[in-house]
Write a structure and sequence with these properties.
- It is a single chain.
- The chain is elongated.
- Helix content is about 35%, strand content about 0%.
- The chain has about 55 residues and is an all-alpha fold.
- The chain has one domain.
Length: about 55
């Protein structure tokens, strides 16, 4: 069974599909999309809050 056929079986409940490391890499399984600590801090800051600009 080729990779496309195996991936289509994921639509069936309870099915597990084994893939090789190369196939997983091609599917993007090992791409790092983490943000930095500074980006996390900045994402929690709300404009106009805590900056002394009360209206």
């Amino acid at each position: 069974m080729n990779l496309n056929d195996r991936l289509l079986t994921l639509n069936d409940a309870g099915v597990e599909v084994e893939v090789s490391q190369q196939e997983a890499e091609e599917l993007g399984a090992f791409e790092e999309a983490a943000i930095t600590e500074q980006e996390a801090i900045e994402s929690t800051q709300v404009e106009g809050v805590g900056d002394g600009n009360r209206q």
